[in-house]
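Protocol step 4 of 5: obtain the predicted structure for the target chain.
Materials: sequence only (see below). No template structures provided, no constraints applied. The aim of this step is simply to have a reference model before the mutagenesis design in step 5. Sequence pasted as it appears in the construct record:
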Amino acid sequence: MQMGKLLGFLLLSSTLFIGLVAADWNILNQKRKNGVRSSLKNYCESWRINVELNNIRGFEVVPQECVEYIQKYMTSSQYKADSQRAVEEVTLYLTSCCSLNGDGKDAWIFDVDDTLLSTVPYFKKHGFGGKKLNATSLEAWMRESKAPALEHTLKLFHEIKDRGLKIFLISSRKETLRSFTVDNLIKVGYHGWTSLMLRYVHPLQCL
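Step 4 output (structure tokens):
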């Protein structure tokens, strides 16, 4: 069974909001310690990239110095452009490396949050990670089934399905959120997947 190795490209920001920087980690302190003269913007950009690469782990909040930067990025055209480019790379990988036999043994795995469904609307109202994640509040929002689809990923989802691959969905959501998750996915245009596997992990253990 072949899997998309570049799936990580789609996880552009899912880790940004599920457990963010240890209380004693301060960007300005790091700047002084390392003797590096650079702008705060550069530091925040570096922090964001290293979160995506999973180099920075075990944190609870976005550094306060970087909250505004994260907000601007997540609501910018650059975020959408990055998402589109990631999907283009995945599509290229799919068309160039995989020989599909149509025997039902080929499959693709998608994560749900911030790959298929966006949590940006929730974090717009909750400080863009500048406050410790309130799991109860986030789950209440998930029960509303109002998360929008990531446009470019939605197109990729249907392209992969049309190629005859089985699609498996995974999520760290609780089993009690299954029906709300399914309703949300269908509502925004996702359908025809093979299985949805929910494997709840406490948000602070996801990194």
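Step 4 remarks: The mean pLDDT is 79. The chain has one domain: 5-205.
Proceed to step 5.
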